[in-house]
Amino acid sequence: MRVTFLGTSGAVPTTQRAPSAVLVNREGERFLFDCGEGTQRQMMRFGTGFDVSHIFVTHLHGDHILGIPGLIQSLDFNDRTDPLAIHVPPRSREEVERLVHAGGHRPGYPVRIHEVSPGSMAYDAADFAVRTVETDHRTRSMGYALVEDDRPGRFDRERAEELGVPVGPKFGRLHEGESVELDDGRVIDPEQVVGDPRPGRKLVYTGDTRPVEAVVGVAEGADLLIHDATFADDEAERARQTGHSTAREAAEVGARAGVARLALTHISSRYAGRWEDLEREAREVFDGECFVASDGQTVDVPYPE
């Protein structure tokens, strides 16, 4: 799983930071979380590829959605035929439809808009799911959690051979949870040669939000939490007024959830020359790996041990 930060600014872009967008490449399938202005150019600039299957929108403020019309049209110009799913908060379909058809454009491929309520399932795949989580902003908003299913335990080849299992297809069947019968009539069960299930990966993206208990809960044990950190402590009151978090508040959420890594994003333009202050304040309360995300930064999310 590879995460590329395409846009890490607050509402106002800077020369170094574009509006909000994060691309996740999981086993070759690309997901876009928010799509601020200029996202398609950032995708070109940082070489992520354009073959996005799902766009997950946290809310309808312009710095999170104004890249959708251009991306939709560019995909059309490149002869896309595969459908594109756009997941949006409740009562947002009509506004997003107008974006999709901006300028009278009619895509030549299916664009399906799905309204999703916080606390539900946005996308349910074979071995992972993208769930929604309630957030607290100044409008209808929600975050997303990409959660993989548990993986099979480690296969003990040495033990299997000791039990007389022949090398070959029966190894695979045992690892997939199926009992096998040997030539002598004995039955070998998976639990004899396969360890306990191993956890998959979890990635959580909040979008714009105040610190909320729902995020703490869904982010428990996450491998990567990408959290709103618009302001430093010196603007804590403004963070409350505008529905955002400070870097310290984001770090407190990460610490309570026990996440492995914390990425701070949606950085206000007022910290263009001193974003290190945000990182320092966050690290005072978060002991794990913590960083202010930058445009173009790529982070690999490995499987937990």
How would you sum up this structure, described in words?
The protein is of the alpha/beta class and 305 residues long. It is built from ten helices and 16 strands. It has helices at 39-45, 62-65, 68-77, 93-100, 157-162, 169-175, 213-218, 236-242, 247-257, 276-283, and strands at 2-7, 21-26, 29-33, 52-56, 84-88, 111-115, 121-124, 128-134, 142-148, 180-181, 187-188, 202-205, 224-228, 261-265, 289-292, 298-300. Strands 6-5-4-3-2-1-16 form a seven-stranded mixed β-sheet. The protein has a seven-stranded mixed β-sheet with strand order 7-8-9-12-13-14-15. Helix 4 links the parallel strand 5 and strand 6. Helix 9 runs parallel beside helix 10. The chain is globular. The mean pLDDT is 95.
